[in-house]
Design a protein that fits this description.
Blueprint (H helix, E strand, L loop, with lengths): L7 H16 L11 E11 L11 H15 L15 E5 L21 E5 L1 H4 E3 L3 H10 L7 E6 L1 E4 L5 E2 L13 E4 L11
Parallel strand pairs: 1-2, 1-3, 1-5, 4-6, 5-8
Antiparallel strand pairs: 7-8
Length: about 190
């Protein structure tokens, strides 16, 4: 069942915990998330005009950590209705072809991250269908991965830090999240 999951390491941890629980008599107790969402972060930079646009791996890790803290309600929220939905986000471990050589899409080789120096796509107009289709083309299959495109700027609408066209506009080919690089991560890592 877990052999082809993009987050293989989390699946292995869940299985190992289940085995350990059974060995000590905790039959039926399964630890770990109820649902694991593999994430691919597509860093699209314009290094010539903004050297900070190619964000560091630490900033990506910080965002995944912040996302998991928020979803697990472990970030200090005081809302009495907030609870842990047992959803965990992790950087994908496998490419769509099930290989794990991330150096083909990312010079650092960090799993779950693609990097592309593309000035034309580093500044995006959310209403430009050609740009939306170009982003979608470099994304991974949205039925298997949560795609997050990290870019320099969103020009239209102005002042927006991020957007996701689905499900508001089902005709938009982009299925995932587009976010500006200076708000991606947490306050300890963002430039």
């Amino acid at each position: 069942l877990f052999l082809h999951l993009p987050c293989q390491h989390l699946a292995n941890q869940i299985i190992q915990q289940y085995i350990n629980d059974n060995l000590i008599g905790l039959v039926g107790n399964i630890h770990g998330p109820g649902f694991v969402i593999p994430v691919v972060v597509h860093v699209i930079s314009d290094i010539a005009s903004d050297s900070t646009s190619n964000i560091p791996d630490a900033q990506i890790d910080a965002q995944i950590t912040a996302l998991n803290r928020a979803y697990s309600n472990s970030n200090g929220a005081t809302n009495i209705y907030a609870h842990d939905p047992e959803v965990v986000f992790c950087l994908a471990q496998n490419l769509p072809d099930l290989s794990n050589d991330w150096t083909t899409v990312n010079p650092t080789g960090k799993a779950g991250v693609t990097r592309r120096n593309d000035p034309a796509l580093s500044s995006v107009d959310a209403t430009n269908n050609v740009q939306q289709a170009a982003l979608a083309d470099i994304g991974f299959p949205p039925d298997r991965y949560l795609n997050i495109w990290v870019i320099n700027t969103i020009t239209n609408p102005g002042g927006v830090a991020g957007y996701s066209p689905q499900p508001i506009d089902p005709s938009n080919p982009l299925d995932g999240i587009v976010v500006v690089n200076d708000v991606f991560g947490d306050n300890t890592v963002c430039p």
